[in-house]
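Input for the complex:
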Amino acid sequence: MKPQLILAPSMLSADFRNLGEEIKAVEKGGAPYLHIDVMDGIFVPSISFGMPVIKSIRSATKMVFDVHLMIVDPIRYISEFAASGADLITFHLEAAEDPGAVIDEIRKCGCKVGISIKPKTPFEDVIPYMDKVDMLLIMTVEPGFGGQKMMPETLEKVRAARQYITEKGLQTDLQVDGGVKYDNIHLPLEAGANIFVAGSAVFGPDTLGETKRFNEYLASKQNA
Ligand code: DX5
Ligand code: ZN
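Predicted:
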């Protein structure tokens, strides 16, 4: 069966002064996931937001909260992010001492599990966890900031991961994050990704319109 093609707008690029409205716009535009980037200033250079913000927007939408943790030693905070309203929690392989324990902790908290690798981390490193997670996130930029350019060399890993998932008969979702635009989304799609994070390409003067445009494209590809 063809995997479901999903748009996950990254809230990092939203206008925080009107966060509630921004979230309503991407929901109305048909985006099933809201991608929520948590940065600690150590694993990545920047600091974004944490539990209180997630908690306060939980009542604004029914979208799947796709929480992308860019923090060191993520096991410390899993239960708090789950309690804040996360549905899916993704941690970085590079940030965890014992990735298996983080996976167990996320499951214990009742959330779906995602694992992520940075551009320089080979796909092979994540293979031992592939049958234990719901989603693999392959970063298509160095994590830390929105608005960067997609690194085309990362798409080789997307191809390798999709081949692995197919060969093993797994149901694992394959997410890409970083530099996804309307005019290049076909590249990760062709490489085998099925969940597409887009921040700066979605949020802006016409958040609703851009969300719809992406969604219509993905729907046409889903039914093709
Ligand atoms: C980067 C974050 C991304 C970011 C994507 O570290 O993980 O989710 O918001 O932003 P764009 O789509 O603008 O590259
Ligand atoms: Zn992200």
